[in-house]
């Protein structure tokens, strides 16, 4: 277990930052004070430096600025004791693909008034499949993130925390999400490819893997106790929420998995 008072640096994209989960402590980053990093730090008494940022790709961790924020690896120091990393989904446009498909299918329904051909053209604007090279690129980038992190913080324990499942056994096409029977399995395949990239990178770089994806399959959209949000076109200020992202229960579950991993 990491000693109380140790420096903990959290890196990642929105599945680490927690947009939509109150309180939001950094609006440009969409960073919540109740994301998994804050929950872990509070439970273990760690000195948290959370630089997770919604929309980040692995490049934003390694060497690319995001808005006014420096590359996330710049937050690491030799005395850092714990590093968590959740990133790579934006490299694949994983959630973005899910969102675009859901949005286009939703607006295609009223478009059928103009004719089925028009509606089908709207739906056809999203490509749901990625090739093997795309997943390998994420694997390689995550491996590089871990290797660069270890160079900066050689004594740190490094955890690759993969993505909570959005699609699971209970997720019904058309009913729980606005994708059809052909589209939804493709999103599940992309999620599996992303989870495999995390597992391969953890093995290649010698990092610990926190497999949130596997732990959450029975808590996906459409389940009795989902750990992620579904789809809406309403913005939060009009009663909506951030679609296809962890909810508060999901962040708590990931925090528990991390604490369990650290104690093993």
Structural account:
The relative contact order is 0.16. It contains nine helices and seven strands. The strands form two sheets. A five-stranded parallel sheet has the order 4-1-5-6-7, with helices on both faces. Strands 2-3 form a two-stranded antiparallel ribbon. It has helices spanning 14-17, 36-44, 58-62, 94-111, 116-123, 132-152, 183-205, 212-215, 248-263, and strands spanning 7-12, 24-26, 31-32, 47-50, 80-86, 157-161, 208-210. With 264 residues, the chain is α/β, with parallel strands linked by helices. Helix 2 packs across helix 9 and helix 4 packs antiparallel against helix 5 (116-123). 41% of the residues lie in helices and 11% in strands.
Question: How would you summarize what this structure contains?
Answer:
With 264 residues, the chain is α/β, with parallel strands linked by helices. The chain has nine helices and seven strands, in the order E-H-E-E-H-E-H-E-H-H-H-E-H-E-H-H.
Quaternary structure annotation: single chain
Number of helices: 9
Give a count of the beta strands, DSSP E runs of length 2 or more: 7
Strand content: 5-15%
Structural class: alpha/beta
Written as H for each helix and E for each strand, in order along the chain, the element string is EHEEHEHEHHHEHEHH
Instruction: Tell me the span between the first and last alpha carbons.
Output: 8 Å
Q: Give the radius of gyration.
A: 18 Å
Anisotropy-based shape: globular
Taking pLDDT < 50 over at least 5 consecutive residues as the criterion, the unreliable ranges are 111-115
Average pLDDT number: 92
Helix content: 40-55%
Strand line-up across the major sheet: 4-1-5-6-7
Largest sheet: 5 strands, parallel
